[in-house]
Amino acid sequence: MYLLVEHFFAKTPTENGASAKDKPAVVENAYQYCMRVLRSHMETPIIPDETVIAEKITKHLTRREGSMDMAMRFTNLYQRLSSKSVLSNQWSSIYLLLALSQQADRLHGHQERLPLAASIAGPPVDHQESLKPGREGSHKHTREDFSAGTQPEKVARSDAGPAISEKDLLREVVYVFQGIDGKYMKYDSRNRTFAIDNEFQVSKPQRQILDKLAEMGWIYRLITDFVEKHKNDISGGLIRQSFCSALAREMTDYYRLIAILQSQIDPAGDEQQSSPLTLKRLYVWTLDPLKRLRSMGIVVELCTDLKGGALLSLIHNFVHHGDAFVSQFISNLMTEVSKPFFQTLARWVYEGELDDSCDEFYITQDSKTAMKDFWELRYSLREEMLPGFLDMSLATQIFKLGKSLNFIRIACKDTKFVLSRTQQGLRTEDLFAFGATRALATHVEFLYRQTNHQALNILVSTHKLKEHFQAVNKYLLLEQGDLTQYLVEAIGKELCKEGRHIYRHDLAAALENGIRLSNARYENPDILRRLDARLLETSTGDAGWDVFCIDYRVKEPIDTILSEHSMRVYRRLSCFLWKLKRVEYALGSTWKARMKLAQNLRQTSVYPDLQACLLTWAQMNHVIVQIQYHINFEALASTWADFCPCLDDINEDIDGILAKHKLYLTTLLRRSLLTLRKKGRKRAALQSIVDSILNFQLAHERLHRYGTALARGDMSCMQPDVRERSFDLSVVHANLPPLDDADEDEDEETLRSIREQLDECRKSFKESVDDLKEVLVEADADAFRGLIVRLNFNQFIWSGKAV
Known about the structure:
Elements: H1 2-10, H2 23-39, H3 50-65, H4 69-82, H5 90-109, H6 116-121, H7 125-130, H8 166-177, E1 185-188, E2 193-196, H9 204-230, H10 238-265, H11 279-285, H12 287-302, H13 308-316, H14 324-337, H15 339-351, E3 363-365, H16 374-377, E4 379-381, H17 392-411, H18 415-425, H19 437-462, H20 465-475, H21 481-495, H22 504-517, H23 525-529, E5 531-535, H24 544-547, E6 548-552, H25 564-589, H26 591-600, H27 607-643, H28 654-673, H29 685-713, H30 720-726, H31 730-735, H32 748-780, H33 785-791
Antiparallel strand pairs: 1-2, 3-4, 5-6
Helix pairs in contact: 1-2, 3-4, 3-5, 8-9, 8-10, 9-10, 9-12, 15-17, 15-18, 17-18, 17-19, 21-22, 25-27, 25-28, 25-29, 26-27, 27-28, 27-29, 27-32, 27-33, 29-32
């Protein structure tokens, strides 16, 4: 290259007053200039598209020649070239030909062009001497032109201060680039910019270029202040520190640029030698660095209070910038900044460990959460800390994946599987980097299926999840009929007492006896150990039937599915089913004794009342039987048949089972409890039916006692064998709440009061049944159609007839 430059300048005459003794310096400057060009990494701003370049050449030939002949000839040659694979980089070759042609046109179009020596040598020596301060005639200044070699004299202004040479301005700019106040340019903190004082004589074009170059100064100060403030701030998190490190690394290239500029201003350390650098050239050279600084400055200004995933989201927004340069620069920056995030993500995916001491990951954990709430409350997802390059579906899958690993390790005590996953993570480190989101999503999907299969296998196979569900249905939802019947007969009388007078150990003993005397004794011993009798919190007036239920204790990891909330729902259903058993018990336990009493009181005045009560009793029994059938077969059995298959589905996950279990419980409550109420009613329709039946039982008991007392007066006229068969009241009084016989007088006033109470109970029962029909039709006619048809199979209840 040096020989080539020397050969070129040997044939070039000196111009602009340069003597022959200056030619070695000119050759040296030209050589240095050529070497800088060769070492530069500047890329063309044009997208490498052969079709676009061919069209430009065609238009260029058409405009220059004034005809289409040369354009047609080029098109023919280009087509022949495209059909052959002679050139390995065809676009670059065509672009070079176009650039050379345009350069030749510009050279031929200027008659008084400058030689290369003048464009590189800089201003003449005498002009440099005239710029030295303290020299006579320094008040005569020359105008600095943006052309590389010509610097005509500047017109002096009487009202302006001293003129500043371009070399001094270049030195000022270098100071400004480093955020330092120079001799002429000072930093204005209010306007956040460097500006040159108006008292100095600077041309308007120079001042405009200085204003544009000064932007790099205040952006540099903004970036360096941010880096110095946060690089050692541990509370800001690893991602912010990584961002500061990436900014510092980018500023290293900026410092290299400043060093090059300094060497161009003072070549070889000789201040007397003219500089090949001008303000215009400096402005052109700093266009790309200015873009980088602007990109970093904008991000720094916006992320002052952000950290973690929120900071990554902010930076990632600029990846989709319309400027390809900015987009590529931010992508490279994101690669460095996101490394701590992907390291935390890898540990979460492979080990289930959340290494986030600075609270910058989009998943958080509460270590104080009890094991029974492990799945629901231990880990949570924060959308505000979710990086923009992860969509919500992938982020949720990653969240569930790590949570499943923790569930296997902590709740299921299976560390072997987690260790095998940790070894697998060592072979896929390249997936956890910015730009590999699609491959990461595929890998996470594979890990997610594998982990969920392992978690469900542990729950279903090892810990017998399905058997626990079946046990809940048997003993809490009363599907074990023989055990339920035994408990009703054994503790029915005890449960008629007030809840505060009942002891749990008596009920637990009855439950143990029932298990030994029923088919429940063949159950898995682990299931039987979990059963217990329970009394709920009692209120004033609550009977034992209102607070008694069978309890089923679950432990980890089964309590993840059968959570405390779920068990409360099951206990609520169990209490309701026991209330129905109470009504069924009240209707069936005294039926035989009441029939005998009615037969022996045919000749008395209360016989019509007893006959009407028996008919009403049959109607109530019909309603209760149909409601129990609906609950047992159309609610419990059908709902369980819909839910049970998900426990055997290998593609199901824990969250899917929890969601379906929640739907299962909701459907059970809606179909079983029938907690629907008519507008204007304080109580649900089914609860009103139960209350009206229990009130009717009490009124009927009063009539029974009244009739018994009335018959005792005529007992002397009855046959002995009839007396022995008719008045066995032990069955009646053993199962119903006792009433004081002294309170009932055998007069017409007492009978009238009993009749009024019975009529009120019949009326209340009829209204409750009507309300139940209305709310069932309004709620879901399809779900309750069978119950409606069976309740009114003979069109009697809703036919308008009275009992």
